Amino acid sequence: MPWFYFDLVIKEQPHHQGGMILENVEGARDRADALAEELHMAKPELDGKRCFVRVINEADAEIYRTPLEPVPKWSVNTIPR
Known about the structure:
alpha+beta, 4 strands, single chain
């Protein structure tokens, strides 16, 4: 199983949040989303600073990023199925 690493990025500066072995990329995305939600609640001083959590794989390639502040549902363009 692969390692994934998580960074909190503030003003383009990464702050390492840890790494873990996960089964797949989907698991890493889920963990990044949960971490972003936790950090959003724990660090309200970061609101409005466009911070995000990024996921890096073992090859140092960014594979996912998610903002700390939730994206409003009205701003997401979705097409009904």
